[in-house]
Amino acid sequence: MSEIVHISEAASLGIHSLALMAGKNNEYVTASQLAAELGVSRNHLSKILMKLAREGLVISHRGPRGGFSLARDPGKISLYDVYTAIEGPLPEAHCLLHRKKCPYSSCLLGGVIGKVNREIKENLSSKKLSSVRVK
């Protein structure tokens, strides 16, 4: 079921990292700090943060007091923004056979793939980083 939303480890780490950053009141946060909080590889997370920087969601600050900060107000960044920066847009196709027109009179799965994709997109789009609370 390749057309059902897949949230990769990279997308998950991007979402979780930016949510942590949103709770830090725009302080600079290093990849090492985020990796320690998330319990993941600093090198892997650094690559994800650099991709998010290229996509304009975070700013990379160099130097001994450097790190990363959000590029925009957390109330203006949705979880879907983070997802698409890493994965690209969610698939629109609903056919497991990757056809524009279904060869059957109706979808064998009752259109559930399209429904799930739409619901996840709506959910991720409606949640802003500012609404995520860290313990």
Q: What's the total helix number?
A: 5
- Strand order across the biggest sheet? 1-2
User: What fraction of residues sit in β-strands?
Assistant: 5-15%
User: CATH homologous superfamily - what is it?
Assistant: Winged helix-like DNA-binding domain superfamily/Winged helix DNA-binding domain
CATH class: Mainly Alpha
CATH architecture classification: Orthogonal Bundle
What structural class do the secondary elements suggest? mainly alpha
Q: If you consult CATH, what is the topology?
A: Arc Repressor Mutant, subunit A
Give the helices and strands as they follow along the chain.
HHHEEHH
Characterization of this structure:
- Strand 1 and strand 2 form a beta hairpin.
- Strands 1-2 form a two-stranded antiparallel sheet.
- It is mostly helical.
- The longest helix is centred in the C-terminal third of the chain and has 15 residues.
- Helix 1 crosses helix 3 and helix 1 packs antiparallel against helix 4.
- Helices cover 44% and strands 6% of the residues.
- The protein has a single domain, classed as Winged helix-like DNA-binding domain superfamily/Winged helix DNA-binding domain (Arc Repressor Mutant, subunit A).
- The chain starts with 8 loop residues before the first helix and ends in a 9-residue tail after the last helix.
